[in-house]
Amino acid sequence: MTSDRLRVLLTRRWPEAAENYLAERYDVTHNREDTPMTADELARAFEAYDVICPTVSDNIDTDVIGAAPLRTRLLANFGVGFDHIDIAACKAAKIAVTNTPGVLTDATADLAMTLMLMAARRAGEGERELRDGRWTGWRPTHLMGRELSGKSLGLVGFGRIAQATAHRAHHGFGMKILYYSRSAATPEIERNLSAKRLDTLEDLLRQSDVTSLHVPGGAETKNMIGATEIASMKPGAILVNTARGGVIDHDVLAAALKSGALGAAGLDVYPAEPAVPPSLLALDKAVLLPHLGSATVETREAMGLRAAANVDAFASGSPLPDRIA
Ligand code: NAP
């Protein structure tokens, strides 16, 4: 396949440098309006493009992939998470799938720390109070939060982003690191982060002052944090989620925040984005960000170029560097 004939679709706007990189090499269709593509538009794209570069706002399921003769041979996803893509259906249709691991690790770990600090220090509440003109001035008991120093941070999943978060929390904030993951990290990683692996999720939740979620989304982790798990958390504990919205049962979370069982939550992701569970919108104890984990200029550009590197490999018939299917 010659690269000048490769038809590539970007389903959303990308940072300019990454869009230009691809446009110089391939026959690229851009989405200048940046509106999410409908299921119908996506389905038609599978008949018209060699490569589709989707992202988390595209739901690529069996209906979209369809049974018609497909032109698409590669989905070069913009993002590390791929729970919006039906991987089994792609395998069945002989469509390769790649993602962009690593380049967004630091930005997302930074955002986990942002949420942790905002939740612990009541930063959202304070900003809303000030902007609403309700601030009456400094006083010794005003908006007292909690400190992170010396507290236990429980990480659920212990991959790239969890370890980068552990690094910040331990070396920057003096937190004690606990983790729960199906497989253990190497002794060297555990030593560097002073991290202790716990046998069960329940053990982790019982011992953590702050819990931060870093598992992939999908069927296996859906509602992993539900009624039993939230009941296991320490009274007043903080829950942070930069993973995927489906990992938490948000009705249970809202009830626990309302009753005071949980101290606060910091969330970046939601089960049916861009919808945000209304039960959370009303709660001061919930810090709610609009899926900003990887949203830095540096990282978004790197994600685009990383996806482009996979398109290049596909075009030249080389092994795909970030192949997940
Ligand atoms: P990663 O390096 O693959 O880490 C995932 C971790 O989860 C691994 O430690 C994995 O270890 C563990 N895990 C997987 N399934 C599990 C299960 N059922 N129970 C317990 N642990 C499980 O991925 P990453 O780069 O850190 O990214 C993690 C997730 O963050 C992504 O999948 C994505 O959804 C999300 N993310 C969000 C943003 C954002 O903007 N908010 C940005 C980037 C990424 P084992 O398989 O050994 O258990």
The tally of helices reads 13
**What spatial form do the alpha-carbon principal axes imply?**
globular
CA-atom Rg in angstroms: 21 Å
- Can you identify the CATH superfamily of the largest domain? NAD(P)-binding Rossmann-like Domain
Going by CATH, the architecture of the largest domain would be: 3-Layer(aba) Sandwich
- CATH class categorisation of the largest domain: Alpha Beta
Bound molecules: NADP nicotinamide-adenine-dinucleotide phosphate
Describe this structure in words.
The structure is a single chain. This protein has 325 residues and is α/β, with parallel strands linked by helices. It folds into two domains: 3-103 and 297-316, 3-Layer(aba) Sandwich (Rossmann fold); 105-288, 3-Layer(aba) Sandwich (Rossmann fold), CATH 3.40.50.720. Helix content is 38%, strand content 14%. α1 (16-25) links the parallel β1 and β2 (27-29). It starts with 6 loop residues before the first strand and ends in a 9-residue tail after the last helix. The model has no long low-confidence stretch (mean pLDDT 97). The protein binds NADP nicotinamide-adenine-dinucleotide phosphate. Residues 80-81, 101, 104-105, 108, 157-162, 181-183, 214-217, 220-221, 242-244, 268-269, 291, 293-294 line the site of NADP nicotinamide-adenine-dinucleotide phosphate. NADP nicotinamide-adenine-dinucleotide phosphate (NAP) binds next to α5 and α7.
